[in-house]
Every structure is written in structure tokens, then in C-alpha cells.
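Per reviewer request, we include the raw input and output of the structure prediction for the construct analysed in the revised manuscript.
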Amino acid sequence: MTTAQERKQQERLARRRRIQRAAREVFAEKGYARTSIEQVARQASLSVGAIYLYFRSKEDLYVSLLEETFEVFDSELMQIRSRSDLPNTDRVQAAWLFFAQWAVSDLEGSRTLRLLSQPGLRKQLSDEVSERTARGIGRVREHLVALVDAGIEAGLYRPATSPEAVADLLWALFLGLLQSNDARINLELSGASFTEAARTALATVEGSIRQQPRVAAEAA
């Protein structure tokens, strides 16, 4: 039987999700700079004061939308790790391809992710949003570490490879590619598409940690 406290918590979570759904629609339509809390409140059919009961600022609300993104990342990376039809040697590539496809298909999500590097952002975030975001990034890192570690065990990568270091490098590289792609588009520069650039970047990283073919064959 649901207690009064549990019902209150469920209602709070439902309203929080309602605000986030409304915010996602407004941000997608107007963009971050032209969106106001007042507009989100109207979209959610709530008062401005009600929004501030859940989120400290527009930045806080915007970053909170990453919670859904990280849930998607967590689910997809978990599936990649558990796929029996996918060899360990292909799983890092599958995860990287997923990131690239997500970046192209969810432009607003990728913009939100890039906002995390904004100086002074932490002061605009509530503890709840900051902690949820940190947990989401942590889960992504755990999956990447596990995928690289599986590649080492399969003989694809050199035994001396640090899964943690490679996972951190891949995540930093992904964020850097997002920034670079933005600059290319904003300046109307020619160049490889995001997906092509991502494939090249991964090949460069893997080329530095792969076993030599003969050694890999012996390990297999």
C-alpha cells in the first residue's frame, strides 16, 4: 500500500517531469537564449513560482534535461555490453557509433551537453541537478571502462592499456568533436561530417592501443 509520503514523492516527480517536458518543447522551438522561465511556465500550465520550486534557474532546468539523455545512454550502452551477437572487439566501435548518431539526431541534447563546460555553471545549478548529472556521466564512464576492458581481455588492445584513461579520453574526444563541429557549421567551413570525423577520431585512438596482428592472434 502506498503511503502518503510515497504519494507525495510520486506527485513531485510527476510535476518535475511535466516541467521538463514543457521545457524541452520550448527550448527546441526557441533555442536556449530566447527561452524564458515564463514561457516554460505557460507551456506547463503552471505559475513561474511553481517552476522555481523545482529548479533554481533557467540553466538548472536546461541541464536537468540531460537526465533523460543519460538514461538513454545508460540503456543503450548496457545493451551493447550484453549483446551476445556482438564480439567484444566490436563493442567500443558500436558505442562510439551510437554517440555519433545521437549527436546528429538530437541537436538540442548535444547543445545541452556542451553547456556543461560553461564557466561558473555550477553556481546556477541545484544540488539535485548537479548530483543527477554527475551520476549520469559516471555511468557512461563505467560503461566505457567496461567496454575497453573487454577489448583488452579479447586481445584487441594491449594489456598495458588503462581502461579508465581510454574511457576518459573517449568522452573528452566526444565533447571536443561536438565543439569542433559547431565551429565548422557556424563559420560555414567545409570539412568532414560529424559522423565521419567521429569515425576517424576513434580509429586514431584505437590505432594507438591495438595489439599488433600477430600478438592479437596469439592471444585469441
